[in-house]
Amino acid sequence: EKLSITKEPVSFPSNFLFGTASSCYQFEGAFVSDGKGLNNWDVFTHESGHIADGSNGDIAIDHYNRYQEDINLMEDLGVNSFRFSISWARILPKGMYGDVNMAGIQHYKKLIDALLHKGIQPFVTLAHYDIPQELEDRYGGWLSPKIQSDFSYYADICFKYFGDRVKYWVTINEPNVMAVRGYRLGTFPPVRCSGSFGNCSAGNSEKEPFIAAHNMILSHADAVSIYRTRYQERQGGMIGISLNTQWYEPFSNSSEDNSAAQRARSFVYNWFLDPIIFGRYPEEMQQILGNNLPAFSRNDVKKLNNGLDFIGINHYTAAYIKECLYIACEHGYSWSEGSYFRATEKDGVYIGKPTTMDWLFVYPQGMEKLVMYMKDRFNNTPIIVTENGIAESDNPNSSLEDALNDTQRVEYMHSYLNSLANSMREGADVRGYFAWSLLDNFEWLEGYTKRFGLHYVNFTNLQRTPKLSATRYKELISNFHSQLATYTT
Length: 489
Ligand code: GBH
What we know:
This protein is of the alpha/beta class.
């Protein structure tokens, strides 16, 4: 099968970003090199019992040392952009409580220059789950409003040192996942549970996810304010945020299930996007949560006015949503979650083809629906798909040849890219697409047992080999560019 845009790709702008994505903790390794401080994921993975295979990101896939080799792979792919995140603890090992680590600055300068040398635009995330451990120890990380000035101080340093060459910034990756996993389910650091969730001892208030989220929203707003006032005019880049965005399909066509699906969208992504774009939390959240939702001061609203330049969507899958506002919610879904029930099957049939990730079902229509939903709700704000992808399970018994023959990923990318192209034909302002991921890497709680890469990584000798999907993605990009050339000449 070939990966191609099946109808005419006339709606792709010529500066459309085709890239691959990564994050520092999952890729870099070198966890104590060149003055880097420990971050919350270093500490978390070193406590036993959290990660499926007992592994950690100490070495990860050694991208810190092998970045030039990885850029050569990108050059082969023909991508024009690379999404990566900066390790906050490499730049500021102790946050605001310590000095800038110039060795960290030098590392990212080299990486950025090496990318630009090959014509690859750096697309930079400031915080992709990891924060300096110092900030957890000092004041409880995202739970404290103190993180707002710490984050914007860090952002300012990044704009100052890298902003002449970086034209795309993401403030925070998936704050919605960090808030829920870190402060409700307790499966991510700092392992705090709320209400009846999880089995951790720390955390006891249903409010914590909302407090952490509030501080993330205001940290974004502070960083954007700094970019707008001190850098953007001179540097000319764009700044946005990336949310984890599933598509929610109502379980039935009842009006209850429809409004439950709408509530799910609000409780999962409008939670962040509405304040940043409209200056207030979604109506449904205000109604259900009342005073348990923190309030924005007049000054906060002023800062939020700076908004964003693009919405980053990390989109992988979809789910059905059932009403349970007036009936008992199954599995303890409660008011603080929006009182809806999430299902991945109906009448014994999955919403889409299942994959090795228990949460990831192949539902390509969801891409178009989600993008059109975002376009309508947020008045045509530019959209960038900052992640989309699928995993294989690590299988020590399979041959390398089999591991490279990732036809499932080729089909997945094909269907999702075509769905994205449909939304663009319908007028959505989509500016880019990043495949998650360039390379197999450290998949958080799953450790090295799941492989999301377009390239296979041998986790023993760290050798990289392109999978079939890399070849197909390369063809798609080059066909697309040659077709474009024929349109413009
Ligand atoms: C992204 O997050 C991350 O940004 C990236 O680092 C990661 O490697 C990649 O995806 C692949 O996982 O309530 O059933 O949906 C993925 C977000 C959010 C996916 C939580 C799983 C959990 C279960 N994850 N979700 S469910």
